Amino acid sequence: MLKIDNLHAKVEDKDILKGLNLSVKPGEVHAIMGPNGSGKSTLGHVLAGRPGYHVTAGTATLLGQNLLDMETEERAHLGLFLAFQYPVEIPGVSNMEFLKAAVDTVRESRGQESISSVDFMKKARAICKEVDLDLSFLKRGVNEGFSGGEKKRNELMQMMMLEPKLCVMDETDSGLDIDALQVVANGVNAMRNSERSFVLVTHYQRLLDYIEPDFVHVLSEGRIIKTGDKSLALELEEKGYAWLEGAA
Amino acid sequence: MSDFMQQPLDAAASLAPTWLADIHARGKAVWQNTPMPTRKTEAWKYTNLLPLQQRFQAPDKSNTPEVSGINYPQLGGSTLVFVDGFYREELSKIDLPEGARLLRFAEADSKQAEAIRARLGQAIVSKQHLFAALNDATLADGVFLEVDANTVVDQSIHLVWLSSGQVDALSVNQRLLVELGANSKATVVESFANTATGGTAFTNGISELQLGDGAILDHYRLHLEQAEAVHIGGVHATLNASSTLNSFHLALGSTLKRIDIVVEHRGQGAHCEVNGIYLPRGEEQVDYHTCMEHAVPNCTSSETFRGIIADQASAVFNGRIHIHPDAQKTRAELSNKNLLTSNQAEVNTKPELEIYADDVQCAHGATVAQMDPATLHYLRARGISKAEAEVMLSFGFINELVEAIRCEAIRDYLKPLLARRFSHNPKLTRHIL
Ligand SMILES: Nc1ncnc2c1ncn2[C@@H]1O[C@H](COP(=O)(O)OP(=O)(O)OP(=O)(O)O)[C@@H](O)[C@H]1O
Ligand SMILES: [Mg+2]
Question: What family, per the record (chain B) (predicted)?
């Protein structure tokens, strides 16, 4: 599904990713943990092609195609979805119009039949319910004035509408109350299948109680310095990151 | 003063009813004794008046140009259409309830003429508004809308001024006088339009809105003129106690548009909301000068203008709030936001606050920005093409004001018109509409 090889990237002349390797197979769930500022969000941004993030070496492919050569929207068409750590507020553009534009474009790019407005609304309403957002959120400006947790649920809603192949979720669990955490976990678990993969960036082992990962990685100073199974998350919870950093 | 308007001045004097003679004289005196503004004139600092440097001609009444190609909103209710300055009955329709009257100056009997003369220009300081003086001096026909106390006019009253482009360097005078009696209510829409091809026209448009105690006026001034059109004009409103003015302004670009909006709060408890959108592109210029005069206590004004400036176009927004010493408990808000979609686009925005009362609330803000790359990226990360994302964000920038338009027919007319302004490709506008 996703193959990242020796990835180096910089932001404004500062090296952030320094030889990152990661391989994700279809159906797998990978958790990435690591200290603040280690480069987790940078990894997501580089995969999504955010302006200002420059790859200086290495490769990243999704479904065998070179991601790094593509425009941001082409990556989304191919099946990449990044749930942002800090979703953007867009006053004046309604959530509904935004979702419809995204769904229509992505479906077109995949050669799927276009979805009727009625079916779209049905689906949007059902997903609103699943992510526990009131229907009025569809009419509001994208993320405009949403609380932290509402923004995260809105990211999840977009993910469920777009049905991507690879979901990179950057701290979607941060700032969520216990019930909302459950909502996110249920959403992810419902989407899990043998074709779809997840990369979950998180600071909290708790999320992994609800979404069981196949692998847990530790990202530190721009590289993956340790990989294990879900027990690694428990160990990190207990010991912190300091004991690993020497090994880097 | 240069004589570029000499022929229209002479023509007006011969065309107009005789009872306008002293108004002509009054306007002419100011016009001829005031030098033409230059870049050194504070109120015209950023506006290039070069497009006026031609010899303008008054329209010829014997022409009845075809205007079926000119697009303007079709609204229910009364519609008065003027083409190249002349009233066109076959394009118009008057349908008013009892207690409301529309009258053309040219048709006024002596009693009506007296009523018009008593009100006309009452709210305009012509020394400060040179082009209003020119309007007086070239006035041949105008429209007087009178609504009696306690009369509610449900349907909109639409005044349409078209220029046909069949003659070059045409000078058109537009004048509207509205008087709403106490506790009356009406919706007045002014539309200005022309063809994209054809000769230049200079429209000098002045509207006066006089609101009695407790009156409510929804007012729209839609400048749909394009290409070579020049419009210099203004809206001068006076608000008596507890009256409410909701005024919406739109300026699509054209060579030059300069609109002065002056609202005088004359009675306590008056309120106005003035919103506007301007969208110049190419080498067009749009200049809005607004002035909220708060002369008495306990009034409010709220102003929101948004502009998107493309290509090499330029815009000026000057928002003056003048709170007189007696105007305690005034609440005045002013917001002007601008989006520049090209590196050569330009805007000069300036709030101008003069506050002489101490117990007031006054908030103002002006911003100039380019399209936010992080926002654009967010849309693209969801698969939306860059081109469509730009259209969505441009429309999103003005959408709040479009949605706030009270008159549904106007909103429905403007939405696709504005969307197409950002792209002619229906695929890129389909999610807005
Ligand atoms: N525009 C920028 N200019 C300079 N430095 C930047 C910029 N963007 C990110 N960085 C730096 O890159 C480093 C990695 O940031 P990143 O956001 O990837 O960390 P993270 O692992 O996601 O952290 P957190 O757990 O706090 O979310 C940080 O030191 C950050 O300050
Ligand atoms: Mg981060």
Answer: Belongs to the iron-sulfur cluster assembly SufBD family.
Q: Whose CA is nearest to atom 18 of ligand 1?
A: A39
pLDDT in tens, B107-119: 999 999 999 999 9
CA distance B365 to chain A (A): 17
Interchain CB contact of B371 with A (< 8 Å): no
Give residue A162's domain range.
2-247
Query: What is the domain count for chain A?
Result: 1
Cα B327 to Cα B312: distance, rounded to the nearest angstrom: 41
Of A73, A91, A109, the CB nearest to B380: A73
Tens digits of per-residue pLDDT, A14-49?
999 999 999 999 999 999 999 999 999 999 999 999
Mean of the per-residue pLDDT values of chain B: 95
Q: Which atom of ligand 1 is nearest to A39's Cα? A: 18
Give the closest-approach CA distance of A64 to chain B in angstroms.
19
- Identity of residue A220: S
Provide the residues around ligand 2 (an ion) whose CB is within 5 A: A 40-41, 85
- Whole-structure pTM value: 0.94
CA of A61 to the centre of ligand 2 (A): 22
Tens of pLDDT, residue by residue over A85-124, are 999 999 999 999 999 999 999 999 999 998 999 999 999 9
**Quick check: A50 and B398 CB within 8 A?**
no
Q: Which atom of ligand 1 is nearest to the CA of A35?
A: 25
Nearest to A92 among B373, B388, B397 (CB): B397
Ligand 1, residues at Cβ distance < 6 Å: A 11-12, 14, 16, 34, 36-42, 85
What is the end-to-end Cα distance of chain A in Å, rounded?
27
Per residue in B175-226, pLDDT (tens digit) is: 999 999 999 999 999 999 998 888 889 999 999 999 999 999 999 999 999 9
In angstroms, the separation between the Cα of residue B428 and the nearest Cα of chain A is 9
Q: Do A92 and B398 touch (CB under 8 A)?
A: yes
Q: Which of A8, A12, A16 to mutate to test the pocket of ligand 1 (most atoms within 8 A of CB)?
A: A16
CA of A50 to the centre of ligand 2 (A): 14
Nearest residue on chain B to A91, alpha-carbon basis: B396
In terms of Cβ atoms closer than 10 Å to its own Cβ (0-12, 13-18, 19+), residue A123 is middle
CA-A171 nearest atom, ligand 1: 27
CATH number assigned to the domain comprising residue A181: 3.40.50.300
Q: A215 pairs with which residues across the strands?
A: A30
